[in-house]
Batch of 2 targets.
Target 1
Amino acid sequence: MIIIGERINSSRKPVSRAIEKHDIKFIQEEALRQIAASVDYLEINAGAFWEKETDYLRWLVVTVQEVSDKPLCIDTVNPTAAAIALRAHRGVALLNSISADKKRYASMLPLVKEYGCGVIALCSGSSEIPESIDKRVNLGIELWDSLTHEGIAPNRIFLDPLAFPISVDQGSATKLLTAMHHLKQARPQVQLICGISNVSFGLPCRSLLNRSLTTLAIYQGLDAAILDPCDKELMASIIATKALVGKDEYCLNYLEAYRQGKLKVP
């Protein structure tokens, strides 16, 4: 499974302060801490600074890539900020995100084509976020079909059926999991992604909820996750779950993780 480290996000107050102060050391330490936890991508987000997002997002790209050759997941809804960040990025990035909203789709698709990046496609349209499972599934299929028709290779597309806090909607996790199941049935090639920590927002013991959702989502075909890789219990749960659902041939990854001490969590 592809792991995307979520920690360099301006919604976190320490990160927000570091971005404002151009605290290179803090940002680079956050990057290195996640790399040590075996991420595939590092997500960067400067969305808390709407007026300065473009400058700050580019600064994050340069700052992180000074100490890492890991590709970045560039999280923005601003096409100008996305374009500048992609231009500054070395290698192939992942763009988070595009949606079925016509304006957003039209502004982001040319960037995906120009820079050859991967793209996260949200199962949402121009109106409010769809609560209906059928609506999410239909929007996801529409996006996947449209992107592949535009020549975007399936392995560059990640559909996000949208995780919402269960503190707001008690059924949000089951809606997410059911949507995942139907998307995999409708388009077996589809790659599914999820922002895991969204589900636990506003609740105590968030790590417990996050790893429980991750286990359930892997069973439903989760291919990639945006999460906190420094949560050792969560990472151990991913390794164990992949072994249990047959996604770890002869349990080789599980055994290697054991030898490296990655399964010994508090």
Target 2
Amino acid sequence: MPPPLTGEAAGDLERRLAETVETVAPYSRRIYLRDGVWTREGGDPGGDFRLRWLLQLVGDLAPKPISELRVLDLGCEEGVFGVEFARHGAEVVAVDGREANLNHTRFLAEAVGVTDRFRAIRGDVRRLNPDELGRFDVVLCLGLLYHLDKSDLLPFARLLRSLSGWGTVIQTKIALRPRQRFEAEGRVYTGHSYLEPLGLHGTTAAENEAHRKASLTNPESFWLTRPSLVNLLIDAGFTSVVEHVGPYTQTAADDWASMLAASGEAAEVYSVPGASQYPPPRWDESRGRMGHMNPISTRRGWVKYRLRRTRLWGRLRRLRSR
């Protein structure tokens, strides 16, 4: 933690926070800066649990301590997640397409004293150059994927794979029904389209720029179903996709998915030589998330199971055998 501020320096922090908020907008999250100064008043005293979940997940599973990681925060918005990793010693690069968001991000990094290992740059996450940025142990793709249109989804997933040395953490909204479908490089993905602010009649480029949680240039985005999201990540070259189920977070809802996509090497099965030459099986959209279900898991199967425990079932069987 940075040393405490005294005298004019302490008052200067509050003044610069007020100027940042007045110039841009209030911070959406209540984050502790230093010396009793928070980004905003009120809010849940326990904070946004996603911060704790994210740190715990990476701390539990990453191949080295957080303080030794190189982290890329895509669509960083206010920079809360990336700055938190920097506070724990990680080297962080944060990217966002809106300068207003980056103003919040840079002030946050400066206020908590992590500018020596935190860099915020403006850019379109779909157009990043892995050769310029290098590879990162962890890539954070939080609340971003569902702002991309269908034509960008597979190329962007491949970009994530090329940037991440260990894995990518993804949080995204998903479609609950396969209402629409599209094809990319011979592979079919399903979900539904979503109208972004830029797609609303009369929305100007300036108004879209001021909308800090929206797409940059596309008027529509495409929300994938859970099976299609998994298929997309595997098609992009990730070797495993693990879904987070606990602890509970504020995004633990049916239309949210929290996943870790691992950037490993294809496993060679010695017991079945040549098995790795065959592509992994894909999720079947028609069977939904569960795939092959036990009949008792369906409504019809449950009714049948309950009936079989009654006398009526025995009478019906005797009648059918006559």
